[in-house]
Amino acid sequence: MLKNKISENIAKNEDGYVWILDGKVFVKDPIGRGIPPAINPCEGVKLIVNGVETKHLVMVSEKDTIEVEPVHEEKEMEIDIEISPDNLKAYMSFKPRRTVKRILKDSYPINKLDISVYEDEINKKSDVNEILNIIEEQGIVYGVKEDLIEDICEKNKNGKYVIAEGKPPLDATDDNLEYLLNIASEKNNNELENIDHKNLITYISVKPGDRIARLIRGFSGEEGMSVLGTPIKPKEARRIIIESNKNIQFDEDTDLIIAKKHGTPTKKENGYVITFDICEKLKLNEVSLKTGNINFKGDVEVAGSVYEDMEVIATNDITILGDVNFSRLYSGNEIVVKGNVISSKLVSGDNSIALKSPGIEVQRIILEIEKLVSNIKNLSQNELEFYNVTTFADTVFYLLNTKNGKLATTIYDVIRNLRKGNYDIDDILLYKLVEKCKCFLGNYNEITDLEYIYEIIESIKNTFYIEEKRKIIGNITITGALNSEIHSHGNVTISGRTCFNTKIYAGGKVSILGNLRGGIVESEKNVEINKIGTSMGAKTLVRVPDKGIIKMKIVYPDTTIMIGRHSYKFINYQTNIFARVVKNKLVFR
């Protein structure tokens, strides 16, 4: 078939042709002006034309004697070794010794013939020791995989192999602090539930002996080894030094950081030196979603503002240097706001907040027992005879069922609160309190005289470290207010220009140094206002008890004052009002 195709091509072309068939070269000269054929040798063959070897393209004719001899070749073993940048791995590209045999490829008649060959490589056996020596000459002395080298020689196939692996260093790990208090902890939440982002952060305080944190010392690290036999240093880690001070103790045996006073723990870092301290006041730049709502045992001071829908609760004082916007402040003692209060609620001297100590909660029981003592002393002989009260125990029983019925309820309420609430009290102390108070809950015969009751009071005070008096001032001092509610255990002072449409209650007196326009002001003592109402009329009410006094420099119409049961509505502009009740009559001068 090939010969037929050759005959057809020759018949169709005028150019000369050359071709190879079964290892022999055949030539057909051109006809007329056709181009003579040419033959081009390739690597691995010898082209001999008329007895002369040629290594380039040459024209041939039918008269030439042309020989093409394949050249067989012996190739040496090829090894190329690479080392990884970290010197932990060595790679070997491998080709074994081999004999390369070549066979000429047949070709169709063509004017220019580029000779080509088939190559057949026959690998020769490789020597393990020879390869190991080459590897060693490259400086690779650690982690060499001799078993792999033997396998390579056994299979004797081309490939790239990982022939050595070093030992990576074990890097040192940083010292860390384990916080034993949830100073800023995020509460768990269910993806299907609504998340209250304002209450995700909790601020807490500590007392002497509380464990704040523990230093967890990191791993010191371990050297590695490169495939070149050189040690690799581990990465150094952060080491922490804890400095003790007068407020905290660092126990080097247990690595514990322990509080030595009451307050909130703080931390400062200066490089690798960490200093813990105890601050009696919680200081914040602002109160917002970034801080969450604040509920703190102690003082709270905010350098900026309290933002929308946030809440600040402090068992003692609250100081806000900025504004309070659409928020709520609850203080166990005083509140000071240097900025304005807008659509917010302020409550100071709140016992429900201040009475977080179990001792002060127990004070409620003591106050009721003291009322019982007072009523015992004030009982007349006629009253005792009328109700057939003969013994001291009967006297206590009589009063607990009449004038002092609140004592038993208070005892039960306090015990329940101490058990359910977050109070610093254990079951032993709670049990002692119950035992002391049983005589007022049914065991009346145990009460033999007043001395017995005095002993109960002293015993409770000593157990719970009750102070004789607890001073709660509960004042509120602000610059101005708009559409807000202010409820103070003590005095309320508004020092700015204007207070708009605000409801104010004070257990003490109220002083408004600027203008009051709309709203309600109620005081258990006195009220003093610079200017109240507007010329256009702004409905405003000021209320004090019978013995209270209302002072107003300027009063506009639509202002109503109430002193006890007496009231008066101003229908025209007036000045220098000094309102009070004299001989059951309301007077203004």
- The termini sit apart by 141 Å
Q: How many β-strand runs?
A: 44
Note the overall shape.
Answer: elongated
Number of helices: 10
Mean pLDDT: 86
- Indicate the low-confidence ranges by residue numbers: 183-197
Q: State which percent range the strand residues make up.
A: 35-45%
What topology does this entry show?
Elements: H1 2-12, E1 17-21, E2 24-28, E3 38-40, E4 45-49, E5 52-54, E6 58-59, E7 66-70, E8 73-75, E9 78-83, E10 89-95, E11 98-104, E12 112-114, E13 117-123, H2 128-137, H3 146-155, E14 159-165, E15 176-179, E16 211-216, E17 224-225, E18 231-232, E19 241-243, E20 248-251, E21 256-259, E22 264-270, E23 273-279, E24 281-284, E25 294-296, E26 299-302, E27 311-314, E28 318-320, E29 324-325, E30 328-331, E31 335-342, E32 345-348, H4 351-354, H5 358-378, H6 381-386, H7 392-400, H8 406-420, H9 427-437, H10 450-464, E33 476-482, E34 485-488, E35 492-494, E36 498-506, E37 510-523, E38 527-532, E39 540-544, E40 550-555, E41 559-563, E42 566-570, E43 574-582, E44 585-587
Parallel strand pairs: 3-12, 19-23, 24-26, 25-27, 26-28, 27-30, 28-31, 29-31, 30-32, 31-33, 32-34, 33-35, 33-36, 34-36, 35-37, 36-37, 37-38, 37-39, 38-40, 39-41
Antiparallel strand pairs: 1-2, 3-6, 4-5, 4-7, 8-11, 9-10, 10-14, 11-13, 15-16, 16-21, 17-18, 20-21, 22-23, 40-43, 41-42, 43-44
Helix pairs in contact: 5-8, 5-10, 8-9, 9-10
